[in-house]
Amino acid sequence: MIWATALALAFAVAFGATEDDAANRAVVLEVEGIIGPASADFIVRGIEDAELSTAAVVVLRINTPGGLDTSMRDIIHKILSSRVPIITYVAPSGSRAASAGTYIMYASHIAAMAPATNLGSATPVAFTPGGIGKPPATPSDEGDAAEGEQTKDKESGDESTAPSQAGSAMERKVINDAVAYIKGLARLRERNEVWAEAAVRSALSLTAEDALEQNVIDIVAKDIPDLLAQSDKRIVSLPSGEVTLNTADLVIDTVQPDWRTKLLAVITNPNVAYILMLLGVYGLFFELSNPGSMYPGVFGAICLLLALYALHVLPVNYAGLALILIGIAFMVGELFVPSFGVLGIGGAVAFVIGSLILIETEVEAFQLSIPVIVTVTAMTALFVFTLISMAVKQRKKPIVSGREQMIGDIGEAAEDFSVSGNIHIHGERWAARTEQPLHKGQRVKVREMDGLTLIVTPVEEQS
To answer: Tens digit of pLDDT for each residue in 96-112?
Structure first.
Protein backbone atom coordinates (compact mmCIF):
# COMPACT_ATOMS: atom_id res chain seq x y z
CA MET A 1 0.00 0.00 0.00
CA ILE A 2 2.85 2.38 0.87
CA TRP A 3 4.62 1.57 -2.42
CA ALA A 4 1.44 2.20 -4.40
CA THR A 5 0.93 5.56 -2.71
CA ALA A 6 4.53 6.57 -3.36
CA LEU A 7 4.26 5.54 -7.02
CA ALA A 8 1.04 7.50 -7.49
CA LEU A 9 2.63 10.56 -5.87
CA ALA A 10 5.65 10.28 -8.15
CA PHE A 11 3.42 10.15 -11.23
CA ALA A 12 1.43 13.13 -9.98
CA VAL A 13 4.59 15.16 -9.41
CA ALA A 14 5.97 14.23 -12.83
CA PHE A 15 2.68 15.03 -14.56
CA GLY A 16 2.37 18.32 -12.73
CA ALA A 17 5.92 19.26 -13.70
CA THR A 18 5.14 18.48 -17.32
CA GLU A 19 2.06 20.67 -17.27
CA ASP A 20 3.99 23.49 -15.62
CA ASP A 21 6.75 23.20 -18.23
CA ALA A 22 4.19 23.36 -21.05
CA ALA A 23 2.45 26.37 -19.50
CA ASN A 24 5.80 28.22 -19.50
CA ARG A 25 6.46 27.47 -23.16
CA ALA A 26 6.02 29.58 -26.29
CA VAL A 27 5.69 27.29 -29.32
CA VAL A 28 7.23 28.86 -32.44
CA LEU A 29 6.06 27.55 -35.84
CA GLU A 30 8.20 28.82 -38.70
CA VAL A 31 6.49 29.16 -42.09
CA GLU A 32 8.61 30.07 -45.11
CA GLY A 33 7.36 30.41 -48.68
CA ILE A 34 4.02 29.73 -50.34
CA ILE A 35 0.98 29.00 -48.17
CA GLY A 36 -0.20 25.61 -49.39
CA PRO A 37 -1.49 22.26 -48.13
CA ALA A 38 1.82 21.35 -46.47
CA SER A 39 2.17 24.62 -44.53
CA ALA A 40 -1.53 24.55 -43.59
CA ASP A 41 -1.20 21.01 -42.25
CA PHE A 42 1.96 21.99 -40.32
CA ILE A 43 0.30 25.02 -38.70
CA VAL A 44 -2.98 23.27 -37.87
CA ARG A 45 -1.21 20.28 -36.29
CA GLY A 46 1.19 22.61 -34.47
CA ILE A 47 -1.68 24.54 -32.90
CA GLU A 48 -3.49 21.32 -31.96
CA ASP A 49 -0.33 19.97 -30.28
CA ALA A 50 0.06 23.27 -28.39
CA GLU A 51 -3.55 22.99 -27.20
CA LEU A 52 -3.01 19.44 -25.97
CA SER A 53 0.16 20.41 -24.10
CA THR A 54 -1.50 23.60 -22.77
CA ALA A 55 1.31 25.82 -24.08
CA ALA A 56 1.08 29.47 -23.10
CA VAL A 57 1.16 30.88 -26.63
CA VAL A 58 1.84 29.93 -30.27
CA VAL A 59 3.99 32.21 -32.41
CA LEU A 60 3.64 31.88 -36.20
CA ARG A 61 6.82 33.34 -37.64
CA ILE A 62 5.94 33.85 -41.29
CA ASN A 63 7.59 35.02 -44.47
CA THR A 64 5.24 34.40 -47.38
CA PRO A 65 4.33 35.87 -50.78
CA GLY A 66 0.82 34.39 -50.53
CA GLY A 67 -0.67 31.08 -51.54
CA LEU A 68 -3.84 29.06 -51.97
CA ASP A 69 -7.13 30.45 -50.71
CA THR A 70 -8.25 27.05 -49.39
CA SER A 71 -5.07 26.54 -47.35
CA MET A 72 -5.27 30.10 -46.00
CA ARG A 73 -8.85 29.59 -44.84
CA ASP A 74 -7.92 26.30 -43.14
CA ILE A 75 -5.26 28.13 -41.15
CA ILE A 76 -7.58 31.02 -40.25
CA HIS A 77 -10.34 28.65 -39.20
CA LYS A 78 -7.92 26.95 -36.79
CA ILE A 79 -6.66 30.29 -35.44
CA LEU A 80 -10.20 31.51 -34.76
CA SER A 81 -11.12 28.32 -32.90
CA SER A 82 -7.80 27.96 -31.06
CA ARG A 83 -7.81 27.61 -27.27
CA VAL A 84 -4.23 28.96 -27.24
CA PRO A 85 -3.43 32.62 -28.10
CA ILE A 86 -1.87 32.97 -31.56
CA ILE A 87 0.72 35.63 -32.34
CA THR A 88 1.62 36.04 -36.01
CA TYR A 89 5.05 37.60 -36.44
CA VAL A 90 6.50 38.67 -39.80
CA ALA A 91 10.23 38.14 -39.40
CA PRO A 92 13.17 38.33 -39.82
CA SER A 93 13.82 41.75 -41.35
CA GLY A 94 13.26 41.69 -45.08
CA SER A 95 10.32 39.28 -44.81
CA ARG A 96 6.74 39.91 -45.91
CA ALA A 97 3.20 38.79 -45.31
CA ALA A 98 1.69 39.41 -48.72
CA SER A 99 -1.75 38.29 -49.89
CA ALA A 100 -2.74 35.23 -47.81
CA GLY A 101 -0.26 36.29 -45.13
CA THR A 102 -2.20 39.53 -44.63
CA TYR A 103 -5.43 37.67 -43.94
CA ILE A 104 -3.63 35.43 -41.43
CA MET A 105 -2.21 38.52 -39.72
CA TYR A 106 -5.68 40.02 -39.38
CA ALA A 107 -7.07 36.76 -37.95
CA SER A 108 -4.42 36.39 -35.25
CA HIS A 109 -4.94 37.47 -31.66
CA ILE A 110 -1.78 39.59 -31.87
CA ALA A 111 -0.18 40.76 -35.13
CA ALA A 112 3.47 41.74 -35.05
CA MET A 113 6.22 42.61 -37.51
CA ALA A 114 9.96 43.01 -37.41
CA PRO A 115 11.51 46.25 -38.69
CA ALA A 116 12.04 46.40 -42.49
CA THR A 117 9.16 44.01 -43.21
CA ASN A 118 5.88 44.62 -45.03
CA LEU A 119 2.39 43.25 -45.51
CA GLY A 120 -0.54 43.79 -47.89
CA SER A 121 -1.20 43.22 -51.61
CA ALA A 122 -4.18 41.07 -50.69
CA THR A 123 -6.05 41.20 -54.02
CA PRO A 124 -6.95 37.71 -55.33
CA VAL A 125 -4.26 37.15 -57.94
CA ALA A 126 -6.58 35.93 -60.71
CA PHE A 127 -8.16 39.36 -60.93
CA THR A 128 -5.25 41.76 -60.47
CA PRO A 129 -4.53 42.63 -64.13
CA GLY A 130 -6.56 45.65 -65.06
CA GLY A 131 -9.63 44.52 -63.18
CA ILE A 132 -11.46 45.46 -60.04
CA GLY A 133 -10.19 48.38 -58.05
CA LYS A 134 -7.35 48.89 -60.60
CA PRO A 135 -4.62 47.25 -58.52
CA PRO A 136 -0.93 47.48 -59.41
CA ALA A 137 0.17 45.45 -62.39
CA THR A 138 2.29 43.10 -60.30
CA PRO A 139 0.17 40.20 -58.94
CA SER A 140 0.09 39.99 -55.18
CA ASP A 141 0.22 36.22 -54.88
CA GLU A 142 3.34 36.09 -57.01
CA GLY A 143 5.01 37.75 -54.13
CA ASP A 144 5.23 41.48 -54.86
CA ALA A 145 4.51 43.45 -51.75
CA ALA A 146 5.35 46.82 -53.31
CA GLU A 147 3.64 49.63 -51.52
CA GLY A 148 0.61 50.95 -53.39
CA GLU A 149 -0.52 54.52 -53.59
CA GLN A 150 -2.43 55.70 -50.56
CA THR A 151 -4.21 58.91 -49.61
CA LYS A 152 -2.44 61.59 -47.64
CA ASP A 153 -4.56 61.07 -44.55
CA LYS A 154 -2.62 58.12 -43.09
CA GLU A 155 -3.79 58.72 -39.55
CA SER A 156 -7.38 58.00 -40.40
CA GLY A 157 -6.43 55.23 -42.78
CA ASP A 158 -8.98 56.65 -45.24
CA GLU A 159 -8.12 55.47 -48.72
CA SER A 160 -9.97 55.33 -51.96
CA THR A 161 -11.73 51.99 -51.70
CA ALA A 162 -14.91 52.62 -53.62
CA PRO A 163 -15.78 49.48 -55.53
CA SER A 164 -15.07 49.73 -59.23
CA GLN A 165 -17.68 48.48 -61.63
CA ALA A 166 -15.03 47.23 -64.03
CA GLY A 167 -14.54 43.55 -64.57
CA SER A 168 -16.93 40.67 -64.95
CA ALA A 169 -19.61 39.67 -62.48
CA MET A 170 -17.43 36.77 -61.34
CA GLU A 171 -14.49 39.10 -60.67
CA ARG A 172 -16.65 41.45 -58.62
CA LYS A 173 -18.08 38.49 -56.75
CA VAL A 174 -14.64 37.18 -55.77
CA ILE A 175 -13.31 40.62 -54.81
CA ASN A 176 -16.37 41.44 -52.71
CA ASP A 177 -16.14 38.07 -50.98
CA ALA A 178 -12.47 38.69 -50.13
CA VAL A 179 -13.29 42.22 -48.87
CA ALA A 180 -16.09 40.96 -46.64
CA TYR A 181 -13.84 38.20 -45.29
CA ILE A 182 -10.95 40.46 -44.29
CA LYS A 183 -13.27 43.17 -42.93
CA GLY A 184 -14.92 40.57 -40.72
CA LEU A 185 -11.51 39.59 -39.36
CA ALA A 186 -10.61 43.27 -38.84
CA ARG A 187 -13.77 43.90 -36.82
CA LEU A 188 -13.20 40.78 -34.75
CA ARG A 189 -9.67 41.89 -33.78
CA GLU A 190 -10.51 45.64 -33.73
CA ARG A 191 -8.02 46.52 -36.47
CA ASN A 192 -8.14 48.99 -39.36
CA GLU A 193 -10.83 47.63 -41.66
CA VAL A 194 -10.67 50.58 -44.08
CA TRP A 195 -7.07 49.78 -44.95
CA ALA A 196 -7.90 46.06 -45.05
CA GLU A 197 -10.47 46.74 -47.77
CA ALA A 198 -7.95 48.88 -49.66
CA ALA A 199 -5.38 46.08 -49.45
CA VAL A 200 -7.85 43.81 -51.26
CA ARG A 201 -9.34 46.24 -53.77
CA SER A 202 -6.18 48.20 -54.61
CA ALA A 203 -3.41 45.78 -53.58
CA LEU A 204 -1.92 48.30 -51.12
CA SER A 205 1.03 47.45 -48.89
CA LEU A 206 2.48 48.87 -45.68
CA THR A 207 5.82 48.84 -43.88
CA ALA A 208 5.95 47.64 -40.28
CA GLU A 209 6.07 51.18 -38.83
CA ASP A 210 3.17 52.43 -40.99
CA ALA A 211 1.15 49.31 -40.16
CA LEU A 212 1.60 49.97 -36.44
CA GLU A 213 0.66 53.64 -36.89
CA GLN A 214 -2.52 52.77 -38.81
CA ASN A 215 -3.67 50.07 -36.34
CA VAL A 216 -3.11 47.23 -38.78
CA ILE A 217 -0.73 45.43 -36.41
CA ASP A 218 -0.17 45.56 -32.65
CA ILE A 219 3.60 45.32 -32.20
CA VAL A 220 6.89 46.03 -33.95
CA ALA A 221 9.53 43.76 -32.38
CA LYS A 222 13.14 43.14 -33.33
CA ASP A 223 13.09 39.44 -32.33
CA ILE A 224 10.96 36.83 -30.58
CA PRO A 225 12.15 37.63 -26.99
CA ASP A 226 11.28 41.29 -27.66
CA LEU A 227 7.94 40.19 -29.10
CA LEU A 228 7.09 38.10 -26.01
CA ALA A 229 8.14 40.96 -23.72
CA GLN A 230 5.85 43.42 -25.52
CA SER A 231 2.98 40.91 -25.59
CA ASP A 232 3.05 40.46 -21.84
CA LYS A 233 -0.11 41.54 -19.97
CA ARG A 234 -2.07 42.11 -23.17
CA ILE A 235 -5.67 40.91 -23.16
CA VAL A 236 -6.89 38.68 -26.00
CA SER A 237 -10.24 37.04 -26.71
CA LEU A 238 -10.38 33.26 -27.00
CA PRO A 239 -13.49 31.11 -27.58
CA SER A 240 -13.53 30.53 -23.80
CA GLY A 241 -13.36 34.26 -23.00
CA GLU A 242 -10.80 36.99 -22.43
CA VAL A 243 -7.30 35.97 -21.31
CA THR A 244 -4.38 38.06 -20.04
CA LEU A 245 -1.09 36.96 -21.55
CA ASN A 246 1.90 36.17 -19.35
CA THR A 247 4.67 35.91 -21.92
CA ALA A 248 7.59 37.77 -20.33
CA ASP A 249 9.57 34.72 -19.15
CA LEU A 250 8.41 31.97 -21.51
CA VAL A 251 10.78 29.31 -22.81
CA ILE A 252 10.94 29.48 -26.62
CA ASP A 253 10.33 26.08 -28.24
CA THR A 254 10.81 26.15 -32.01
CA VAL A 255 9.02 23.27 -33.77
CA GLN A 256 10.62 22.00 -36.98
CA PRO A 257 8.57 20.43 -39.81
CA ASP A 258 8.45 16.64 -39.44
CA TRP A 259 8.65 13.96 -42.13
CA ARG A 260 4.91 14.20 -42.81
CA THR A 261 5.10 17.91 -43.59
CA LYS A 262 8.17 17.41 -45.77
CA LEU A 263 6.54 14.53 -47.66
CA LEU A 264 3.35 16.53 -48.12
CA ALA A 265 5.36 19.50 -49.39
CA VAL A 266 6.96 17.27 -52.03
CA ILE A 267 3.91 15.39 -53.28
CA THR A 268 1.65 18.48 -53.29
CA ASN A 269 3.96 20.08 -55.80
CA PRO A 270 1.60 19.92 -58.81
CA ASN A 271 4.35 18.69 -61.13
CA VAL A 272 5.26 15.86 -58.74
CA ALA A 273 1.59 14.91 -58.21
CA TYR A 274 1.06 14.96 -62.00
CA ILE A 275 4.01 12.64 -62.66
CA LEU A 276 3.01 10.33 -59.80
CA MET A 277 -0.49 10.03 -61.27
CA LEU A 278 0.88 9.09 -64.70
CA LEU A 279 3.35 6.60 -63.24
CA GLY A 280 0.49 5.03 -61.29
CA VAL A 281 -1.71 4.70 -64.38
CA TYR A 282 1.12 3.27 -66.48
CA GLY A 283 2.15 0.86 -63.74
CA LEU A 284 -1.37 -0.54 -63.44
CA PHE A 285 -1.65 -0.74 -67.24
CA PHE A 286 1.53 -2.83 -67.50
CA GLU A 287 0.37 -5.05 -64.64
CA LEU A 288 -2.98 -5.68 -66.32
CA SER A 289 -1.24 -6.29 -69.66
CA ASN A 290 1.18 -8.75 -68.05
CA PRO A 291 -0.60 -10.32 -65.06
CA GLY A 292 1.75 -11.62 -62.41
CA SER A 293 4.54 -9.10 -63.07
CA MET A 294 3.93 -7.74 -59.54
CA TYR A 295 6.47 -4.88 -59.60
CA PRO A 296 4.59 -2.57 -62.03
CA GLY A 297 1.34 -3.16 -60.14
CA VAL A 298 2.81 -2.48 -56.69
CA PHE A 299 4.77 0.56 -57.86
CA GLY A 300 1.79 1.91 -59.81
CA ALA A 301 -0.63 1.47 -56.91
CA ILE A 302 1.67 3.34 -54.49
CA CYS A 303 2.25 6.18 -56.95
CA LEU A 304 -1.45 6.46 -57.75
CA LEU A 305 -2.50 6.59 -54.09
CA LEU A 306 0.08 9.30 -53.34
CA ALA A 307 -1.10 11.26 -56.36
CA LEU A 308 -4.77 10.96 -55.37
CA TYR A 309 -3.95 12.22 -51.88
CA ALA A 310 -2.04 15.19 -53.32
CA LEU A 311 -4.82 15.99 -55.81
CA HIS A 312 -7.35 15.79 -52.96
CA VAL A 313 -5.72 18.74 -51.18
CA LEU A 314 -4.93 20.71 -54.35
CA PRO A 315 -7.46 22.84 -56.27
CA VAL A 316 -8.06 20.27 -59.01
CA ASN A 317 -10.30 20.73 -62.04
CA TYR A 318 -11.83 17.27 -62.41
CA ALA A 319 -12.69 17.93 -66.07
CA GLY A 320 -8.94 18.24 -66.65
CA LEU A 321 -8.32 15.00 -64.77
CA ALA A 322 -10.96 13.22 -66.85
CA LEU A 323 -9.40 14.55 -70.10
CA ILE A 324 -5.99 13.23 -69.03
CA LEU A 325 -7.36 9.74 -68.32
CA ILE A 326 -9.37 9.74 -71.57
CA GLY A 327 -6.27 10.86 -73.46
CA ILE A 328 -4.24 7.98 -72.03
CA ALA A 329 -7.05 5.54 -72.82
CA PHE A 330 -7.24 6.75 -76.43
CA MET A 331 -3.48 6.53 -76.95
CA VAL A 332 -3.40 3.02 -75.49
CA GLY A 333 -6.45 2.11 -77.59
CA GLU A 334 -4.44 2.99 -80.68
CA LEU A 335 -2.40 -0.17 -80.00
CA PHE A 336 -5.44 -2.41 -80.32
CA VAL A 337 -7.78 -0.63 -82.73
CA PRO A 338 -6.72 0.13 -86.34
CA SER A 339 -7.84 3.80 -86.26
CA PHE A 340 -4.98 5.03 -88.49
CA GLY A 341 -3.81 7.50 -85.84
CA VAL A 342 -7.18 9.06 -84.99
CA LEU A 343 -7.27 7.67 -81.46
CA GLY A 344 -3.59 8.40 -80.87
CA ILE A 345 -3.70 12.02 -82.05
CA GLY A 346 -7.03 12.66 -80.32
CA GLY A 347 -5.67 11.15 -77.13
CA ALA A 348 -2.57 13.37 -77.25
CA VAL A 349 -4.72 16.48 -77.74
CA ALA A 350 -7.03 15.52 -74.85
CA PHE A 351 -3.99 14.76 -72.69
CA VAL A 352 -2.45 18.21 -73.30
CA ILE A 353 -5.71 20.12 -72.74
CA GLY A 354 -6.43 18.18 -69.55
CA SER A 355 -2.93 18.86 -68.25
CA LEU A 356 -3.25 22.60 -68.90
CA ILE A 357 -6.52 22.93 -66.97
CA LEU A 358 -5.81 20.32 -64.28
CA ILE A 359 -4.80 22.73 -61.48
CA GLU A 360 -7.45 25.41 -60.97
CA THR A 361 -5.45 28.35 -59.58
CA GLU A 362 -3.57 31.38 -60.83
CA VAL A 363 -0.88 31.07 -58.14
CA GLU A 364 2.22 30.38 -60.19
CA ALA A 365 3.84 28.08 -57.63
CA PHE A 366 0.84 25.72 -57.84
CA GLN A 367 0.52 25.61 -61.62
CA LEU A 368 1.77 22.80 -63.81
CA SER A 369 4.98 23.60 -65.63
CA ILE A 370 4.52 23.87 -69.40
CA PRO A 371 7.88 22.15 -70.09
CA VAL A 372 6.78 19.24 -67.85
CA ILE A 373 3.48 18.93 -69.74
CA VAL A 374 5.23 19.03 -73.13
CA THR A 375 7.90 16.53 -72.05
CA VAL A 376 5.44 14.04 -70.53
CA THR A 377 3.07 14.29 -73.51
CA ALA A 378 5.91 13.82 -75.99
CA MET A 379 7.30 10.83 -74.08
CA THR A 380 3.85 9.23 -73.80
CA ALA A 381 3.05 9.77 -77.47
CA LEU A 382 6.51 8.54 -78.49
CA PHE A 383 6.12 5.42 -76.37
CA VAL A 384 2.67 4.62 -77.77
CA PHE A 385 3.62 5.24 -81.39
CA THR A 386 6.84 3.22 -80.95
CA LEU A 387 4.72 0.27 -79.82
CA ILE A 388 2.41 0.82 -82.80
CA SER A 389 5.31 0.83 -85.29
CA MET A 390 6.74 -2.32 -83.71
CA ALA A 391 3.35 -4.02 -84.01
CA VAL A 392 3.06 -3.00 -87.69
CA LYS A 393 6.55 -4.31 -88.47
CA GLN A 394 5.76 -7.55 -86.66
CA ARG A 395 2.67 -8.11 -88.81
CA LYS A 396 4.80 -7.85 -91.98
CA LYS A 397 7.18 -10.59 -90.87
CA PRO A 398 6.56 -14.14 -92.08
CA ILE A 399 4.66 -16.44 -89.74
CA VAL A 400 7.01 -18.77 -87.88
CA SER A 401 4.59 -20.96 -85.92
CA GLY A 402 1.10 -22.41 -85.97
CA ARG A 403 -1.18 -23.67 -88.74
CA GLU A 404 -0.61 -20.63 -90.99
CA GLN A 405 3.16 -21.15 -90.94
CA MET A 406 2.85 -24.87 -91.85
CA ILE A 407 0.61 -24.46 -94.90
CA GLY A 408 2.71 -23.94 -98.04
CA ASP A 409 5.97 -25.23 -96.56
CA ILE A 410 8.08 -27.86 -98.27
CA GLY A 411 9.00 -31.24 -96.77
CA GLU A 412 9.99 -34.68 -98.04
CA ALA A 413 8.44 -38.12 -97.82
CA ALA A 414 9.93 -40.27 -95.06
CA GLU A 415 8.80 -43.46 -96.79
CA ASP A 416 6.92 -44.79 -99.80
CA PHE A 417 3.17 -44.48 -99.43
CA SER A 418 0.16 -43.98 -101.70
CA VAL A 419 -2.49 -42.75 -99.20
CA SER A 420 -1.15 -42.32 -95.65
CA GLY A 421 2.40 -42.15 -94.40
CA ASN A 422 4.97 -39.85 -92.80
CA ILE A 423 7.00 -36.88 -93.99
CA HIS A 424 9.91 -34.87 -92.60
CA ILE A 425 9.33 -31.12 -92.24
CA HIS A 426 11.00 -28.54 -89.96
CA GLY A 427 13.18 -31.32 -88.58
CA GLU A 428 10.08 -33.12 -87.34
CA ARG A 429 8.19 -36.26 -88.42
CA TRP A 430 4.54 -35.62 -89.29
CA ALA A 431 1.67 -37.88 -90.36
CA ALA A 432 0.56 -37.07 -93.89
CA ARG A 433 -2.03 -37.99 -96.52
CA THR A 434 -1.75 -37.76 -100.27
CA GLU A 435 -3.92 -38.40 -103.31
CA GLN A 436 -0.94 -39.51 -105.36
CA PRO A 437 1.71 -42.15 -104.56
CA LEU A 438 4.90 -40.74 -103.08
CA HIS A 439 8.43 -42.15 -102.95
CA LYS A 440 10.86 -41.86 -100.06
CA GLY A 441 12.83 -38.62 -100.29
CA GLN A 442 10.38 -37.00 -102.70
CA ARG A 443 9.72 -33.30 -102.00
CA VAL A 444 6.16 -32.48 -101.06
CA LYS A 445 4.20 -29.32 -100.31
CA VAL A 446 1.70 -28.97 -97.46
CA ARG A 447 -1.69 -27.99 -98.92
CA GLU A 448 -3.74 -27.98 -95.70
CA MET A 449 -4.03 -29.55 -92.25
CA ASP A 450 -6.60 -31.99 -90.93
CA GLY A 451 -6.01 -31.93 -87.19
CA LEU A 452 -2.44 -33.15 -86.82
CA THR A 453 -2.35 -34.76 -90.26
CA LEU A 454 -0.85 -32.85 -93.17
CA ILE A 455 -2.48 -33.00 -96.61
CA VAL A 456 0.40 -32.92 -99.12
CA THR A 457 0.97 -33.00 -102.85
CA PRO A 458 4.17 -33.61 -104.84
CA VAL A 459 6.12 -30.42 -105.53
CA GLU A 460 6.50 -31.26 -109.19
CA GLU A 461 2.74 -30.88 -109.73
CA GLN A 462 2.83 -27.34 -108.35
CA SER A 463 5.51 -26.14 -110.74
So the answer is: 999 999 999 999 999 99
pTM: 0.67
First-to-last C-alpha distance (Å) of the chain? 114
- Using the CB atoms, write b or e for 366-385: b if 16+ within 10 Å: bebeeeebeebbeebbeebb
For the stretch 371-379, contacts whose Cβ atoms lie closer than 8 Å and that sit 24 or more positions apart, written own/partner, are 372/271, 372/274, 372/275, 373/274, 376/274, 376/275, 376/278, 377/348, 377/351, 377/352
DSSP run (H or E) holding 329:
helix 318-333
Q: Name, in order, each residue with C-beta under 8 angstroms of 8's C-beta and a sequence gap of 6 or more.
A: none
CA-wise closest residue to 131 among 52, 201, 43, 60: 201
Which tens digits make up the pLDDT trace of 292-334? 778 888 998 899 888 888 887 777 888 888 888 888 888 777 7
Query: C-alpha angle 28/31/33, rounded to 5°?
Result: 165
- 92 preceded by cis ω (within 30°)? yes
Compute the residue count for the chain.
Answer: 463
Residue 411, classed as helix, strand or coil, is strand
Inter-residue contact 164 to 82 (CB < 8 Å): no
Cα–Cα distance measured from residue 119 to residue 61, given in angstroms and rounded to the nearest whole number: 13
Q: What is the dihedral of CA 65, 71, 76, 81, to 10 degrees?
A: -150
Domains of the chain listed by start with CATH number: 15-258 (3.90.226.10), 261-396 (no CATH), 402-462 (2.40.50.140)
How does pLDDT run across 429-463, given as a tens digit for each residue?
888 988 888 888 888 888 888 888 888 888 865 44
Please provide the DSSP assignment of 6-43 as one string: HHHHHHHHHHHHHHHHHHTEEEEEEEES-B-HHHHHHH
